Amino acid sequence: MSTAVTNGHQASTEDFAKHVFGAELVEEDTKMCGKILTVLSWMVVILTMPFSLFVCFKVVQEYERAVIFRLGRLLSGGAKGPGIFFILPCIDAYARVDLRTRTYDIPPQEVLTKDSVTVSVDAVVYYRVSNATVSIANVENAHHSTRLLAQTTLRNIMGQRPLHEILSERESISQHMKALLDEATDSWGINVERVEIKDVRLPIQLQRAMAAEAEAAREARAKVIAAEGEQKASRALREASEVIGDSPAALQLRYLQTLSSISTGKNSTIVFPLPLDIVSYFIKCEEAKQNRIRT
Fold this sequence. Notes:
single chain; 3-stranded antiparallel beta sheet
């Protein structure tokens, strides 16, 4: 039994050794082939000079970087540029990466909000490549992937919020969406700089219902304000009547003010109330005359 276990252990050890040493041998062969091809490429460059210089020297602009692959492997030193860089023919391939900020206009997305209202939302995303090497090596198409992710993120965020938050909290929604996109695209070498919600379109029937609701609310507030004004006016009139009742001369002055205000208008007829003091004087005179006649 112990002999079988020992034989099995020796067999597994031998397989592991063969696997490790075989991988090392393959890697050494690959390195050797790479060195040979590199030497041959240099020989071709030297033999075909100066014509080879037109092929070997490349130029990238200030806003660009070049990611170079040599025999399928990333060249050490990172992305090249801006300016002139050198490549070997036949074994080097390079990809240009634009570092400028790009604008993506997210098409209108039909979203069902948390309170079951269908709205159409569109936004704008500003992003740029922050790491040229990662954007080429880690994802097939960084720009296309970022745009698709922006669409799905917009739909997910809007679907988690009610309608009144979407209409009133656009800035906070934009900041939340930017944070989610920036976190997701960091491994792609993409930096999301800004996200802006452009427009939120509501169905026509919902717009009419909201307009009617707002109009009814305004009418209700107007009636409340009018009622409060009538209440204050009635209190002021009561206080004014108390003041006039304490001073008979104040009533006469009020009559004169009323006459002055009426005369300013274009009126052909003026109705002026007769003061009560004059009427009471004539009444007293008549009573005194009758008393004299009786006596």
